[in-house]
UniProtKB/TrEMBL annotation:
HAMAP family: Phe_tRNA_synth_beta1. This is Phenylalanine--tRNA ligase beta subunit. Binds 2 magnesium ions per tetramer. The lineage of its organism: Bacteria, Bacillati, Actinomycetota, Actinomycetes, Micrococcales. It is found in: Cytoplasm. It is an enzyme of class 6 (ligase). It comes from Microbacterium terrae.
Length: 843
């Protein structure tokens, strides 16, 4: 919010010698953030000049210039630049006349740009200064020729300081207004806050009576609100004031001081009628819209749009309307998006003679949704979606009418129309001990009451508490906590002590959180780099990586995605890792070992997820509502995935580079299993995106937990990744749940181990993991470890058979095992393998 200081001084006593920094410091004390200071970036000498004469001189380039004689100081006096009272100036504009008063920038002046002015020779003359346009002075973007003071309704003797005359010596401070303090998007609100900070006298512009509307006049205007589809149970418009001003002259100039203030506030001057509506909006915080009364058909109705309706807004765009959009309509149809932007059919133009002024109170949620739906933020919607004082529309409409009478020559008929729902603010119970206990400062009762009354609350008391009724302009004051915040703000944040709270004992990471950290730390220790990515992807990527066979499984599509090309929630972490790998490879980083732990979304087939129901704010939903919201969310599982590409070992002196292989991906899987406290078995399997024969299904105790393998060359090429790409993905939540209660440390046996090998011949289709499980089951508790060391298929074996060799290690905790005990345990495992798979010992 930009606040011109001359405007602020009208409603609060700001010292004349107060700098912008002083004002910002005061506003920071009451909770605003300092943003910037804005000035007209020009310096003098810039004076009023009187055109005495000029000669038009056509040039060879087809342009006609004027060689002007301009008085820039009273006769007989020295000009502000030290030169003669009459300067010769070359000017290319042709919209001024002899006798006109203009703005002259004399040598030594600097205009926005910066653009320094100096005497210079041009077109055969020495131009001793420049006659300025409004754009060159920083008063607008339009360049309609020379700025003539008569067009601004101004007159002053030659040599008068034009900077002060035009209000260009004003300065504005810019503050950041948080969404809950919409009242501060106005001079009225900021002046009140400056008064809170400094104790300066505040004069409320909203308290002035500008004249009531005669709603019973024969020319009264019909106003109705028909809202059959309210949002959150609240109708779109609770108040609508219309006021008629006739016989305006839209060609009259906007006063220079008003243009200067609007410019500093960040608003372009668009003509006297629109400038007045914008001026009152900034002054009071009440958005105003003006209609060309003669273009209206019948009365005004505020309603929701119907399916298929369209509206051309003031920016010239035809917009497809939603049934949630709140409209201003007449008998011809929509004429404006309520609280956002007016329609083109009824806009005020240079031909407007009669104006209907609109000042309304619209529902905050409805306006916010409409502005975002149409990507149409405006100064009006910015205020409406934060909440506008419901007591101000009558005052604002009257203020606009008064200014249109004063500066546009109109006649205030005091006729119009109004619709108003009664509004009241419930009292808030504030226990006497609550504020000191919450803030940690021993405030006295007088300090608490004084602070609340200062912000506009009506306070009454009983023995145990106060009852505070917030003012109409503070919809953010809703409970005792917000009242306590106001006391702390008004009394000064510097009174709040700096003390760290003591953490409660006995609370740490949950078992699941600890497990996830162990897994992430283990992968990082193994040389992998964690690369979090967004949880959005395409349906094709979900089908490719998020299903065992590549069949189409349901995915959740977002209604309002960040990226329209990736509107689905991911079923797998692999698409995100592929994007990260592609980005790194494109920048020359080809040897990659990356991982991610994150949530994937796995909707159940046939279940519709998502809901259009939004519970009301500031009210805790009941159990049924919470259950409905929970049911609208798809199951979310936390996965861990790794990706390897390029070399696992870089080229070194005396040794060649070693490319990443499936063995490296399996090592990552084992690291995950070790950190989680489980043993992960690998069996051959299939995945749509993985190479057949180089794909493994991962399981823990017979439960499938993920997969590992090499990407198909076509899939890697589609991701712009050269060479072989290895991936693995596991359901981390499931892995940790299967781990059960983790034993942090185990006793080490002091007795030696007995090692034996066994080679078993089985059918080629028997999975090594299944055979391993049979050996483990049969060998019993003496078996400490077992690993596959060889897979032989060739001469000496029956056709369709293979030989798998396992290395077994046995150990007892209370004695040294004999060779016979180890052999007996091994043969017990072989017996189970023979029973299940027909395994025989290889001779």
């Amino acid at each position: 919010m930009r606040v011109p200081l001359s405007w602020l001084r009208e409603y609060v006593d700001v010292p004349q010698d107060a700098s912008p920094e002083d004002v910002l410091e005061a506003l920071v004390r009451v909770g605003f953030e300092e943003e910037d200071v804005f000035r007209f970036e020009l310096t003098g000498p810039i004076v009023v000049g009187e055109v005495l004469e000029f000669v038009e001189e056509p040039q060879s380039n087809g342009k006609t210039i004027r060689w002007c004689q301009v008085r820039v100081a009273p006769e007989g006096e020295t000009a502000a630049d030290g030169g003669d009272a009459v300067h010769g100036i070359v000017c290319g504009a042709g919209n001024f006349f002899v006798g006109d008063k203009v703005v002259v920038t004399l040598p030594g002046a600097v205009l926005p740009g910066p653009f320094p002015i100096a005497a210079r020779k041009t077109y055969g003359h020495v131009s001793d200064g420049m006659i300025a346009s409004a754009r060159e002075l920083g008063l607008g973007d339009e360049h309609n020729g020379i700025l003539r003071l008569v067009e601004l309704g101004l007159d002053a003797p030659a040599g008068t300081d034009a900077i002060a005359l035009l209000g260009l010596d004003d300065v504005a401070v810019d503050i950041n207004v948080t969404p809950d303090r919409g009242y501060a998007l106005s001079i009225r609100g900021v002046a009140r806050e400056y008064s809170h900070a400094t104790g300066a006298a505040f004069r409320d512009p909203g308290a002035k009576v500008w004249g009531e509307v005669n709603l019973h006049d024969e020319s009264a205007f019909a106003v109705a609100v028909v809202d059959e589809a309210p949002i959150r149970g609240r109708v779109g418009a609770s108040e609508f004031v219309a006021r008629i001003v006739r016989d305006v002259d839209p060609t009259k100039p906007t006063p220079a001081w008003m243009i200067a203030r609007l410019t500093l506030a960040g608003i372009r001057s668009l003509g006297i009628l629109i400038d007045i509506t914008n001026y009152v909006m900034i002054e009071l915080g009440q958005p105003i819209h003006g209609y060309d009364l003669d273009k209206l058909t019948g009365g005004i109705t505020v309603r929701r749009a119907t399916a298929g309706e369209k509206l051309e807004t003031l920016d010239g765009k035809v917009r497809d309307l939603s049934v949630e959009d709140l409209l201003i309509t007449d008998e011809s149809g929509p004429i404006g998006l309520a609280g956002v932007m007016g329609g083109g059919t009824t806009e005020m133009t240079d031909a407007t003679r009669n104006v209907l002024i609109e000042a309304a109170t619209f529902d905050t949620v409805s306006i916010a949704r409409t502005a975002r739906r149409h990507k149409l933020p405006s100064e009006a919607s910015r205020r409406f979606e934060r909440g506008v004082d419901p007591a101000i529309p009558f005052v604002a409409a009257a203020r606009v009418a008064d200014l249109m009478v004063q500066y546009a020559g109109g006649t205030d008929t005091r006729a119009g129309g109004a619709l108003m729902n009664p509004f009241s603010t419930a009292g808030i119970v504030l226990p006497r001990a609550f504020v000191p206990a919450l803030i940690g400062v021993e405030y006295t009762d007088d300090e608490i009451v004084s602070a609340l009354e200062m912000v506009g609350c009506e306070v009454s008391a009983n023995e145990e508490s106060w009852i505070a009724i917030p003012p109409t302009w503070r919809p953010d004051l809703t409970d005792k906590w917000t009242l306590a915040e106001e006391v702390a703000r008004i009394e000064g944040y510097d009174r709040i002590p700096s003390a760290l709270p003591l953490p409660p004992s006995g609370r740490g990471l949950t078992a699941a959180q600890q497990g996830r950290r162990r897994v992430a730390n283990a992968l990082a220790a193994a040389g992998y780099v964690e690369t979090p990515s967004f949880g959005f992807t395409t349906e094709e990527q979900n089908d490719l990586h998020g299903s065992p066979t590549g069949a189409h499984l349901p995915s959740v599509k977002l209604a309002n995605p960040l990226d329209g090309q990736a509107p689905f929630l991911r079923r797998s972490l692999v698409p995100g890792l592929l994007q990260v790998a592609h980005r790194n490879v494109s920048r020359g980083l080809t040897d990659l070992a990356i991982f991610e732990t994150g949530v994937v979304f796995l909707p159940k087939p046939g279940v519709q997820y998502g809901t259009a129901f939004v519970p009301p704010l500031a009210v805790r939903p009941d159990a049924a509502t919470l259950a409905e919201l929970d049911a609208s969310i798809p199951p979310q599982h936390r996965h861990v995935a790794v990706l390897l590409a390029g070399n696992a070992v870089a080229k070194q002196p005396g040794s060649a580079a070693v490319a990443a292989d499936l063995v490296d991906a399996l090592d990552a899987v084992r690291a995950i299993g070790s950190a989680a406290g489980v043993t992960i078995d690998v069996a051959q399997g299939e995945r749509a995106a993985l190479h057949p024969g180089r794909t493994g299904v991962l399981s823990v105790g017979g439960a499938e937990v993920g997969y590992v393998g090499e990407l198909l060359p076509a899939v890697a090429e589609a991701a712009d990744l050269p060479g072989r790409v290895l991936v693995a993905e596991l359901d981390l939540d499931l892995v940790l749940s299967l781990a059960g209660e983790r034993v942090i440390a185990a006793s080490l046996s002091g007795y030696p181990a007995a090692t034996q090998d066994v080679s078993l011949v089985v059918r080629a289709d028997v999975a090594a993991a299944d055979l391993r499980a049979a050996l483990v089951e049969g060998a019993g508790d003496l078996l400490e470890s077992l690993r596959l060391v060889d897979d032989y298929r060739g001469a000496g074996l029956p056709e369709g058979a293979k030989s798998l060799t396992f290395a077994l290690r046995f150990r007892a905790s209370d004695r040294t095992l004999t060779a016979a005990e180890a052999t007996e345990a091994k043969l017990a495992g072989v017996a189970v393998a023979a029973e299940r798979f027909g395994a025989t010992l290889r001779e």
